[in-house]
Please model this.
Amino acid sequence: MDDDFDMPAGDDMMMGDDGMGDFGGAEGPVMKVGEEKEIGKQGLKKKLLKEGEGWDTPEVGDEVEVHYTGTLLDGKKFDSSRDRDTTFKFKLGQGEVIKGWDLGIKTMKKGENAVFTIPAELAYGEAGSPPTIPANATLQFDVELLSWTSVRDICKDGGIFKKILKEGEKWENPKDPDEVLVKYEARLEDGTVVSKSEGVEFTVKDGHFCPALGKAVKTMKKTEKVLLTVKPQYGFGEVGRPAAGEEGAVPPNASLLVDLELVSWKTVTEIGDDKKILKKVLKEGEGYERPNEGSVVTVKITGKLQDGTVFLKKGHDEQEPLEFKTDEEAVIEGLDRAVLNMKKGEIALVTIPPEYAYGSTESKQDLAVIPANSTVIYEVELVSFVKDKESWDLNNAEKIEAAGVKKEEGNALFKLSKFARASKRYEKAAKFIEYDTSFTEDEKKLSKQLKITCNLNNAACKLKLKDYKQAEKLCTKVLELDSQNVKALYRRSQAYTQLADLELAEVDIKKALEIDPDNRDVKLTYKTLKEKIKEINKKDAKFYSNMFSKMTKPSGEESKA
Model:
């Protein structure tokens, strides 16, 4: 617009409640050419002259480009970008134009042409804009939305604005553990370059240069190019940064402009509850399938210490690849877990800390000795795998047979005090026969007994692993099938005791004793539980006695204390 005629929003016209009513949001009113509708509940009207493309509409913060002609209701023209043959650009929803524009243009699609009738309250109000616009004037704008550039307030606090210069590929964004490769150039507002790189790698959560880069790349797609406007709180704050080498100085409280391109990234997966095993993808695999527990996998593998010493090499230099069955302790736990997270053809770098590798003991390998407490690094290519059968791959007889095999495997592991692995076997066994509606009566009897045994044994594992809540749930499953099961009542009582629910623990152990009064373990547990309840009751009595005596002590005695 002309220098002497812009479209400022007065203080009372800053964006707040937009009054869009049913027409608020991205899509705006659904309209046909020639139709006029009211937008919101503040008197703004829109008449569609030409339909736009697609479904997308600009959002608050986007930089839009339009052509327009503004007239009074009597048809008198007061401004036109078309007459000047110069498009007009502004940031939507930032108060750079009258509120009627902010509300109306966000309902438009690319290429759309519409006439907006804007009441004075959403335009220039009682003051008008002399000499061209009278006080309390209703205005009409013929607007064509040519395009817009996406601008996002990344942190929702005005600290980092991201303007997309080139759309990226696909839909994924990097996550905190991922390693990204970026190109960037950072400038002060006067254009002085303070830092640049034609290719630098960093972990997203660690960031690079200033906090804004790490936050911005998490919102970007591969090959996306953006311009960041960075406020001091996401740059170098009140302190600034001195010059160092080829890097320029950043003054205190300086804003920055950063051209940033996300070239690529390597996905890093944090494996395990403690997220200590790290898998960095060097080459993406095929499809979506991954090995399951019990799969037979074939891998090419190179194992190194952190200093680069190679201690294992299989599948390279005409050597046979390594083949093993997962979840059978054929390899160290960290490698086993990592392979379960890979796809066929994937190549990954796996970093495994000592507790998931060879622990506190020295280990002699093919090519070198691994010292105690060593972190090891494997480059692994998953050549192929054959999955262990799942329940849906089996007929009813095979399901019962497979459940029995897994139960026996669980029993063997339990005897070796490998409770976590035993628990997985019992879970897998129970899963094979979880749904038995298609079973014959004989099959249902076998299935029921297997479910009871597997869930009982799994509950014993959970008690050993101090997972008392799961132990209680598993025992409850058993009691739903067999309400008189003494072992289930006994183990659930143990779980309740550890969960400090002594009343429920007592109910279960009493019932177990009624069913089997000669059971030595049950009698011993009941005796221990009664003593525990008695001790707690004593403590409670003492506590309430002390509290009561303090409440009833005479004020004179209190003053002497």
Summary: The longest helix spans residues 520-552. The mean pLDDT is 90. The radius of gyration is 35 Å. The chain has twelve helices and 22 strands.
